[in-house]
Structure formats: C-alpha cells, structure tokens
Amino acid sequence: MPRGFDGRLCFGGDYNPEQWPEHVWADDVELMRRCAVNLVTVGVFAWSRLEPAPGRFTFGWLDRVLDLLHEGGIAVALATPTASPPPWFSFAHPDALPVTRDGVRLVHGSRDTYCPSAPAYRTAARRIATALAERYAGHPALALWHVHNEYGTVCHCDHAAAAFRDWLRRRYRSLGALNEAWTTTFWSQQYADWEHILPPRATQYLGNPAQLLDYRRFCSDELLACFREQRDVLHELTPDVAVTTNLALGPWVPVDPWAWAPEVDLVAIDHYPSSVEGLDAEQETAFAADLARGWAGGGAWLLMEQAPDIVHTGGRMVPKRPGQLARLSLSHVARGSVGVMNFQWRASPGGAEAFMSAMVPHAGPDSRSFREVAALGLELARIGHVDDPVAADVALVWDAHSWWALQGPGLPAPDLDYWAMSRAVHASAWRLGVTVDVVAPDAPLSAYRVVLVPALFLTSASTASMLESFVESGGHVVVWYLSGVADATVRMHRGGSPGPLAPVLGVRVERHYPLAPETTVALDPDGTGSSWSELLRLDGAEAVLRYADGDLSGEPAVTVRAGRAWYVSTSLDDATQQRLLGEVFAAADVAPAAPAAGPGIEVVRRGRRLFAINHTDHVAEVGTARLSIEPGKFVVANY
Ligand code: GAL
C-alpha cells in the first residue's frame, strides 16, 4: 500500500507540473482538494527538467511542488523518469539509442529512446533514481515510488545481442541444448558458436519461432533487471516506502507479469479499454482487473492509469458515456484495486498527447467530465478500502508466453488473438454473473470448482498433470482450441494437440480447419462456431455439439469426458458459449455472486460487502433482498 493509505482508497493521477508555470500549481492543489484527490504521480517524464545536463540536478521546482502538495494534504507517488532520457543523453551515448529489427537506430524526439541493455543507460537510470531517493527520502509527501513507466522497450542492437547471448547461455548451458530447443536443423540454422546468435533482426523469410519467443522472454527479464536495479536503490534509501511500476497490457508488451509481480511491493496496472461496442469496455475492464488481482496473488493492487474521459478505439478517441467513468472505476475497486488513478490530472498544453483526456480537461473545471471526476473522488472517499478477498470459485488460466507464441511466424491463421480468446471466455462468465480469478499455468487449483483454459498454446506436462488431478478430485475443466499445441520452446507435441491434455480430455485433434473471417459453421443441435474448427477423434470423450455443415459435418465440435472435462474446438457464438458455461457452472455448483442479477449487472462479493454495478438503463434488482440500483449507478452494501 502507499504509505499512509491504510483503509483509504487512492484517487488521483499523473501530475505533470513541469508542463505548467508555477502559478497554475496552486490552482491545481485547490482543484485536487475539490475532488478528493489524495495521491498524484509526479515526474514520470521529467528527466530533462530534473537533470538538464549530465549529473547536474535541478530539484528546486520539485521541492516546491512536493511541499505544496503536502500542505494540501495530497500524497505523492514519486516517479523515476527513466522512460524518457533527455536529448543530451542520446548525444553523449549514441550507442544507447534503440535499434529496430530492421536495423534503424531511433533518435530522441519522442519517449522510450533507450536500449535496456546499454550500460550507459543503466548507469544514468540508477544515478537519477539515487539522486531522487537521497533528496526526497525524508519528505512527508512521499507515499510510493513509481519506477519508470510501462516497461516495454525492445532493442536489437549489439548491446542487446550480447545480453541475449548471456541470457541464452544461462538458460540452455550448451549450444547443443539451444540447437535442440530452437529446432535449428530446420532451414540449416544450427549454431556452432554462441557469438553467431543474434536478436531476431529482420530476415529474408519467416523467423525462428523459438528464437522470437525466447527474445520476448529475454526482454522481460532484461527490463526486470532494469527495474530491480532502481528498486534496490530505492529500498535501501527509503526502506519504508513501497516500490511499484505500472504494468501495461497489450500484445506489444514483452513483460511477463507472473514473473514481475513478486518483484514489486504493489502490483499496479494501466488499463485502457479498446472498444465502446455494447458492454465491451465493461467486460474488458473486469478482465483486466481480474488479471491484476491474479498477478497480485489475490491481494491488493492498484489501477495506476486509466483515461478519465475517453476510450481509445483504434485511432479514434470516443468519449465515455455518462457515468461510465464511475462504473468502470468501481469495477476495478470491486475486483481488488486499492484506488483509482488516471492519466492524467491536467490536459497537456501541447505535445503528442494534448488530445488525451484528463481529470481537468482543456475546457477547465466547468465541464461535465470534471464534474464526473469530482463526484467519483467524493464517492471513493466514502467507500474506503475493503480488505476482504474477492470470492471466486472459478479460475481462468492465463499465460503471457502462449500469447507471445501465438504472435509468432508461420501459424495456421493470421488472426489468432490470444487476448480476444481469453477475454471472450472471461466475458461469458461475466455475463453469467460469475466471478473469475485469473491464475498462472502452474497455480494450485484446489480452491476452485471450475478451471477455464482458453488457448493455452504452450502446455507443459506438469500443467496437464495438475489439471488431470484437479478433474480426478472432482473439479470441472473447460479447455478451448489451440491449447496443448506445443511445449515451452514451440516444439509441436507428438500426436498433435491437445498434447499432454489429451488423456484428461479424451480427444485428439487430427486436423485444423481455420475459418475465414466473417464465416460461421453451424452446430448441431444449435449454435454456431467461427474463427477455427477442428477434426476431432474421440478417445474417451463424447460429443456434446457436432459440426452441422462444411467438411466437418457430423464430426464432434464440443466434447466432454467423465462429465467434467470439456473440450471446445471452435469459437462458439456468445449465446452457445454462455449456455455451455451455464451448464458447467450448474454441474459444479458454482453460483453467480448474487442470484438473479441479470445481464449488464456486475456483482462482486468481498466478504459481507457486495459491489453491484448497474451498466444498464433500467433499474436493477439484485439478490434475494432486492437491492435496488438506479440505471447506470452502483451500490456498495453489506449483504
Ligand atoms: C499510457 C502511458 C501514459 C500516456 C497514456 C496516454 O499508456 O503510460 O504515459 O501515454 O498512455 O493514454
């Protein structure tokens, strides 16, 4: 928890006073107080203001900002500004500029212009982190360290190549083992010397999937080493201040949150839903929040960034609907976030993100969005932090490595989207009102009644045997297509998928039939599949749904073994998937968080506390005691 926040929820956002003249700062604090802001993240991109020349620090302005905030009763998550080195840095250390896979050396003029493996970058990052910790160790406003911003930078330069080779040496120990793991007999890629191994730079044709996947893993570990170096400095100089970093969610992010979570004192995520269709943003928010709680081991975590007033849908910034900011924020809090932080406090006066939404928009405080922000702040202050764990009988297995492998080259379809697949499964449970914990592939499962396994492309024998014991001891498991395809080095399982999951599921996949976009296949007795289909061989399981047209007509589409181990070989339409999960939940005795909540009513139970959010435009009656919630509103009640 941020220091001093026991029992209180955090509310605030990124605050960039360096972008404004000093006379605005006092207005800022005044306005923050009006909307019950109690925590702001300061200095995320302020490196060039804090260290305008190598080793010359200008902390005076930051002293005044922190003093002012403290006088206003506002605590500070102090950032280390290492996501954006200043121009002087790249001139002094051109070798620390990042190189793309095409060999283009990027220059400053944006942000994240550094190579994580460059010694000069690491030294400069430690120096500014140390200087900040020495300066502000005793400052009463300091409540939390916010290291860097959204670690995710990838580089392909010679520094990165050398570090990658070291990482590979530690992982494989011998070139023989690496050659085996990377299947280098294919296309004459056998390595005879460690020095010949390169990052996955641009190649003539498809790259090596195992090399690409290992590079992602290396990037995750290398960035984690960058984080650790700063964290250790901060821990040493300010032992009683928690250290975090804001994890980004997205297919581009080479960070494995399961490996990072134990390294931070508080898991923090940024979440920006990407669609305004129907209840997409609501469902995606619940999924992101459940992921974060999973990474936090079921405990407290913090929503470090969200957009206060827009949803980014591709290149279009669509305003949030009235009340949606509060509803989405409450969903995060219900699912374990100890606060609601936003990007950002005041809209930037210029620069590349001047059109991003802000708690104080360009239009100023006399605006609908500021009023919603203020109302939310006051509401959160009233609710306070709930310690009770989120109650969930269902787990969903989620794996960054499978996500990365499903972005690899040479896959049977170009649009296999792990995020969308796992989200669709989570959304079905959401619509049924059932709360889901997200767990790692090696997590203990005995606390659950049902385990959902979407597209676990890389499945190890140990995960398979844990699922097998889970089913043997009475648990129910549902596995979706593209699970059990390969091992950790993207070597295909002998006998085809679902590989080591075949015995527990009682099926084998003989052949893949990827479906063209926008096409569907009919199912018997009802429902449709899309995206993907498979020719299945029953080996102990029975068919529950069959394909009803096309080449697979009459073949099994959804199967079950022993009444508890389900396999789904296509992307089911929402209604069919919901019906299937409804059946599984009923058989496993899994009830919704509140009976009869109805579609669009999100309910999460934490001990005696019930969070109920009405995402619909009609009054909702929740539970047997008929808790009544106005359209678009929420209730937090003992129930
Ligand atoms: C976040 C990032 C912020 C800002 C924001 C804009 O992902 O951490 O610095 O760029 O997006 O939406």
Beta-strand residue fraction? 15-25%
Number of helices: 17
Which overall shape is indicated by the principal axes computed on the Cα atoms?
Answer: globular
Q: Based on DSSP secondary structure assignment, what is the total number of beta strands?
A: 28
C-alpha end-to-end distance: 27 Å
- The averaged pLDDT comes out at 97
Sheet with the most strands, sense and barrel status: 10 strands, mixed
Bound molecules: beta-D-galactopyranose
Helix % is: 25-40%
Indicate the structural class.
alpha/beta
Strand order of the largest sheet: 13-12-14-15-22-21-20-17-18-23
The unreliable regions are none
Please, could you describe this protein's structure?
It is a single chain. With 639 residues, the protein is α/β, with parallel strands linked by helices. Helix content is 31%, strand content 21%. The protein contains 17 helices and 28 strands. The strands form 6 sheets. Strands 13-12-14-15-22-21-20-17-18-23 form a 10-stranded mixed beta sheet, sandwiched between helices. Strands 5-4-3-2-1-11-8-7-6 form a 9-stranded parallel beta sheet. β6 (246-247), α9 and β7 form a beta-alpha-beta unit. α10 runs parallel beside α11 (324-334), α10 packs across α14 (418-431) and α14 (418-431) crosses α17. The longest helix has 29 residues, at 209-237. The two termini are 27 Å apart. The mean pLDDT is 97. Bound molecules: beta-D-galactopyranose.
